[in-house]
Amino acid sequence: MFRKEALENRKMRWRGRAILLPGVPLWLIIMFCVCFLAAFLTFVIDGTYMRRVNVSGEITTWPRPVNIYSNVQGFIVKSYVTEGQKIKKGDPVYLIDVSRSTHSGVVSDNQRNDIEQQITRVENIIAGLQESKNATLKTLEKQKQQYSEALKFSTDVIRRAEEGVKLMKENMENYRRYQARGLITKDQLTNHVTLYYQQQNDLLGLRSQSEQNALQVTSLESEIQTQAADFDNRIYQMELQRYDLQKERLNADISGDVIVRATSDGKIDSLSVTAGQMVNTGDSLLQIIPESIDHYLLVAWVPNDAAPYIAVGDKVNLRYEAFPAEKFGQFSATISQISKTPASTQEMMTYPGAPKNVQGTSIPYYKVVIKPDREVVEYDGKRISLENGMKAQSTLFLEKRRIYQWMLSPFYDMKHSATGPVNE
To answer: In what order do the strands lie in the sheet with 92-97?
Structure first.
C-alpha cells in the first residue's frame, strides 16, 4: 500500500471526469480567414497614409528683439539705462573702459593730450597762414589799385595829349600854306614842325608809360591769384594734417572709453551686465524688445527631405513646451513663408532653438515661418500671451500615398539599386 509504485499511481490518477470540447467547424475558419484577408487587402489597397514630420522651432515677434553684444574687451564703467526703460535709437546704454595703464599713467589719456597739443599747434599755424594770406593779398590789392589809378590818369593824359598833337598838326599844315604864300618865314615853319614832332615823341613816352602801368596791373592780378593759391595749398596741407590728428584722437578715444548705443527704438527687456563687470568681445550686454509688436511668428527649420512637400498656406499642428499637449492639446497654425535656399549657419545661430548640426552629419535646413492662428492661450480664466523664445514642436503633413506603396517602398529601393542607366 505504501509502495513507491502505489504512491506514484495515486498522484497520477484523475480526480474527475475529462470532458472534450467539440472542435471549430472548418467552414467557420475558412469564412473568418476570407473575411480577414478581404478586409486586409481592402485596407492595404484603398487605404492611404499621409507622411508627417515633427520639426522644432521657437516663437519670435515681428519685428524681432534686438540683442546688443560687446565688440570690445574692457570694464563696464557706467550704465545709462535700467530694465523696462524706453529708449530711442542712438541713446547711450553702457560706457566701457578699454584703456591700459603704465607707470607714466593711462596710455590713452597721454596719447590724447599729445594729439591735442599737436592739433592746437596746427590750428595756430593755419591761423597764421590765414593772416599772412590776408595781409599779402591786401598789399597786392593796394598796389594794384595804385597802378590802376596811375593807368587811368595816364590814359586821360594821353587822350588830352593826342588832342593837342592833332591841333599842332593842323597848325603845322596851316603854317605850310602860310609859308607857301609868303606870309611867314621858313625858320618859323621849321620851328613849328620841330615842336610838333617833339610833342609826338612825348606822346609816345606817355603811351609807353601807360602800357607799363597796364602790364603791372596784369602782373599784380596774376600774382594775387598765385599767392592766394599758394596760401590755400599750404592751408589745405595743414588742414589735412589736422584731420589726420583728429582721426588719431578718435582712435585714442576708442582705446580709452567706448560708448555702446542703442541700435533701435524699443524697451529694455534685460541687462546682462552691471557696472564694474568685465566683458569680452561678443558678450551679450542687453536685449531690446520692440515697442509695438505687430504679430507673433514661429520660426521652424525643415530638413531638405521634407521641404519639397510643403507649401505656403498649408495647415500645421503646434505643441508648445510651455503649454503641454497632454493638458492644452495642439494648436492650429498656417505656413506663411518658406525659404528657397538653405539657411546659413550664421542665420541659424541667431535663433537659440535652431537645430545644431553634428560634425560629419551636416543637413541642409530650410527656414519656414509659421503664423499661429491663436496668439493667446486661455487658462484658469487668464489670457496668457506667447513670448519670445518659446520652444515649440510643429507637425508638418507631407506626401500622401496608399498603404501598399508604403509597404512596398523597400522593394522600390531594391528596384532602383538594380536598374541600369536611365535614358529619358
So the answer is: 257-261, 92-97, 74-79, 278-279
Q: Provide the pLDDT for residue 13.
A: 67
Task: Sort 11 into a burial class: Cβ within 10 Å, 0-12 / 13-18 / 19+.
Answer: exposed
Burial (CB count within 10 angstroms: exposed 0-12, middle 13-18, buried 19+), residue 257: middle
**Prediction pTM value:** 0.57
| Strand partners of residue 284 | 69
Q: Are strands 48-62 and 295-303 parallel, antiparallel or unpaired?
A: antiparallel
For the stretch 202-215, pLDDT in tens is: 777 777 777 787 88
Summarize pLDDT for 30-75 with one digit per residue, the tens.
898 999 999 988 888 888 888 888 998 898 888 888 888 888 888 8
Query: What is the tens place of the pLDDT at every residue in 180-228?
Result: 777 777 777 777 777 777 777 777 777 777 778 788 878 888 888 888 8
